[in-house]
Amino acid sequence: MKSNKMKNIIATINIILMLFTSILSAQVNVENIFSQANELYNKGDYIEAINNYKEIIKNDLHSAELYYNLGNSYYKIDSIAPSIYYYEKAIQLNPNDSEILDNLELANNSLVDKIDPITTPLIESIFNRVSNIFYFETWGYISIFFSFLIVALFLSYYFANNSKLKRTAFVLLCISIIFMLVSLTNGNNGYNSYMHNEYAIIYSYETDLKTEPNFRSETLFMLHEGTKVQVIENYNNWIKIRLANGQIGYIQLIDVKIL
Known about the structure:
Strand order of the largest sheet: 6-5-4-1-7
Structural class: alpha+beta
Shape: globular
Number of domains: 3
Oligomer: single chain
Strand content: 5-15%
CATH superfamily of the largest domain: Tetratricopeptide repeat domain
Largest sheet: 5 strands, antiparallel
Helix content: 55-70%
Order of helices and strands: HHHHHHHHEEEEEEE
CATH architecture of the largest domain: Alpha Horseshoe
């Protein structure tokens, strides 16, 4: 019986080691592909660089840097729609990266469609900027940190014998509660925005914005590649969209790529 138990333990250890080795090997392989893609980009072989970057995505690995490099590669070959798509993907993971934002603005300057966005109220704009400092998952981790800190400060306040230490613990406790509530609010808003606000980039050279989801309806105007739209609803092969200026209409699903 003991020998059987020992065999089971050894077999379990071997399985764990094999899994660890395979994960480590896959990570090393991905890093090699990423390095090769960067070298190809620096040599000006942008098509091959794109293929290598996409090979990493096929392995279900994602990062702001990866999407940023893809956006740069597409921009170099004058593929504006894909470049904007991948810059937007990068911003979803790293909303305040100045280089990504600058390159996205540069790509947007190449667009045919010049759509002025609706002016956001000052307070809402400030609130959105604060929320975008971190990805919603990061806000979640911050709120967890402050939760533990609140417990520690409460215990310090409760058991402290020194009045000065009690006051300090109480003040820090109040501040920590405020920061925890702020991080929870920002995380929740970021999550809701991620889950319920779906966007897409127009990939077709041009597409008609219709009043209804069919070809017989009136054409409002033409939209062109690279324009970002908000997806409101799906209607089989059509989607209802909202533009940055608030204009609503319908375009074919095949003409866009969902972010």
